[in-house]
Amino acid sequence: MRFIPFVAMALLLGSCSGHQAKIAYPEAPSDSTTYEVFGNVVADPYRPLENDTAAATLAWVEAENEITQNYLSQIPFRSKIHDRLDALNRFARRGAPWKGEDGKYYWSANDGSHNQAIIYRADAPDAEGEIFLDPNALSDDGTVALTGIFMSKDGKYTAYTISRSGSDWTEIYVMDTATKELLPDHIEWAKFTDAAWKDNGFYYSAYARPEAGKEFSNANEYHKVYYHKIGTPQSEDIVAYEDNSQPLFFHHATVGDKGRMLAVSASGQGLGNSLKVRNGNSPWVDIETSQDFSNEIIGMVDGKIYLFTSAGAPRNRFVLVDPAKPARKDWIEIIPEDPEGGVLTSVQFAGKDHFIAVYDRDASNHAYLYDLKGNELKEIKLPTYGTVGFSSSRDNDDVYYTFSSFVYPAAVYNYDLATSESVPFYQTEINGLNSDDYITEQVFYSSADGTRVPMFITYKKGLERNGKNPVYLYGYGGFNVTLNPSFNANRLLWLENGGIYAQANLRGGAEYGEAWHVAGTKQQKMNVFNDFIAAAEYMIDQNWTTPELLTIEGGSNGGLLVGATVNLRPDLFKVAIPRVGVMDMMRYHLFTIGWNWAPDYGTADDSKEMAEYLLSYSPVHNISNDGTPYPAILVTTADHDDRVVPAHSFKYAAALQAADTGNAPKLIRIDSKAGHGAGKPVAKVVDEYTDLYSFIYHNLGITPDTAK
């Protein structure tokens, strides 16, 4: 087996506008592995790369990173792109304040100089706060991220959750709220959990300690709810709920009604979650036994449950449930499903007398104030297409919200329940950004089957529709996720250099409710790829751009989207960026929590028809090998990604590099001390986007104005 740590510069960089010499890639660890699925023999030559700790894999990773970094380092404007991205990301920002159980106000903020936001507190929301918790002090390089803060009901203790290097594994620490003293309590190997306080302790969800060396790859099974009492070691924690008949379920605990009620939801094998509740030591009462519908508890008050649910409402509704009469026919509807086709996305208390409800209408947020009976009182007007997030509680009348859009960084507003007025509380400013210099419009285009699909397009005013504009097309299309307009400072580099950012709202998401979601799942997954292809064709047909100026990008399920779409239409794009993608659809369910994606994807074990459908679009299995030119491709993954394990990207990159797809570069960027993306420090974000944009611009044959 040979490894090539360095390749001559001419072979690495080549010419973006003329003939490119093919890069001499490292030879990946491989063998003759095949396996049979319902009579179909599937070749899996890069199976050895699934062992991410093997010496051969580590050597290949090192060689791949060296080739990629050598290639990128020769792009002459890379350092200037880095400097501009660093400047764009180093802006002061602040989150909406909330009132803690101790009566003080808390908020997150970053003055632009830190990798992670700091938590502050003060006696008033507009006072100068003291540092309450600084995640930057938890590691030297900012790779420990704060993922949640949970205060005990008496305000005495604060539990907080952290993630290391982007992993889904969660640790829980506890501090004395008043003194900020860290207590000995420490929980390990928790996952997908918060800390639900009751009395002198809290509930949390965790797995058994994983096998050493397989912490980030082995399948996770038997998720249990534990109760931890303050001052005791984790080894003494009590199992509060488990279901050993269902090793692949997630379990999550919620405490309410002043600690009297405990609810447990189960998910992982359906499109939603089941829900059961108990009052004190009474028997469990089933509210929903299936995982066919989403069920989220908004509050538990006076022995009853305020429930956000899709049961009986594919676009969601809000109901009151009495556990003494748990049958769905006895639920009292407060906010019904929107008769005009909007999707109810969230409901929360705003003081004791109001609810705030947020709807998606054509993929953009709209907010409304309701009374307890479900009467609409007022629309909370938002500035433009965008995303809103509210900070409110049943315990007080303070209401704050953040609003952001493509060229509007998150601003904080104070909403007065008495006057129904929104008052700016904190405005984010970025040097060099004038939001009025840009336009966002929403368009609708037809997919292959005639389905009408929405898409947002953002660009600089004065841009001409002349077919000469670089376009960055982004999509996701899965897991009931809606792509609302949102802010990303890194996109500003693209926009300020005359690029168009297009965000397509593909089927598989939640833009129009459960029917839109289901239309992009299992044996309808091809709809998602067709929607994305149609978005690119629309941008070309409407004379915004040409294939030679079109870049596509997506992450996770969006990485699958990019990989599958490139295989289907390699002629339509110049550059493709599949990030942390699900690339082996035949084996994805065998790693960490991959089995949890089966409701969206189906698995190769389900049936012959399902296996053949997955095999027909699985990115790693459908790469052309007949000389068909592929776009320039930069694959990204990370060594601590235990959501979509690196093996997906490893095998895909190895197959790409071995195939005959023309001379455009097929590189992989493998980050260290990073995971699926959440909690990534600013420095690592800047480094990653520097490489992405350098790769994109170089292969489009463009030197951005930023770098001139």
Describe this structure in words.
This protein is α+β, with helices and mostly antiparallel strands and 708 residues long. Strand 36, helix 7 (557-568) and strand 37 form a beta-alpha-beta unit. The radius of gyration is 25 Å and the shape is globular.
Please give a quick description of this structure.
The protein is 17% helix and 34% strand.
Summarize this structure as a short list of keywords or feature phrases.
globular, disordered N terminus, 5-stranded antiparallel sheet, 8-stranded mixed sheet, 708 residues, alpha+beta
Please report which band the strand proportion falls in: under 5%, 5-15%, 15-25%, 25-35%, 35-45% or over 45%: 25-35%
- For the terminal residues, how far apart are their CA atoms? 43 Å
The residue fraction in helices comes out at 10-25%
| Quaternary form | single chain
The backbone outline, from C-alpha atoms, is: globular
Spatial arrangement of strands, main beta sheet: 32-33-35-34-36-37-38-39
Gyration radius, rounded: 25 Å
Mean pLDDT, nearest integer?
A: 93
Largest sheet: 8 strands, mixed
Query: Unreliable runs, pLDDT <50, ≥5 residues?
Result: 1-18
Total strands: the figure is: 39
Topology:
Elements: H1 9-13, E1 34-37, E2 40-43, H2 55-73, H3 78-89, E3 93-94, E4 98-99, E5 105-110, E6 118-122, E7 130-133, E8 144-151, E9 157-164, E10 169-176, E11 182-191, E12 196-198, E13 201-206, E14 224-229, E15 238-241, E16 250-256, E17 261-267, E18 273-279, E19 285-288, E20 295-301, E21 304-309, E22 317-321, E23 332-335, E24 343-349, E25 354-361, E26 364-371, E27 376-380, E28 387-393, E29 396-405, E30 408-416, E31 421-426, E32 438-446, E33 452-460, E34 471-474, H4 491-496, E35 500-504, H5 514-518, H6 526-541, E36 550-555, H7 557-568, E37 575-579, H8 598-601, H9 608-617, E38 632-638, H10 647-658, E39 666-671, H11 682-700
Helix pairs in contact: 3-11, 6-7
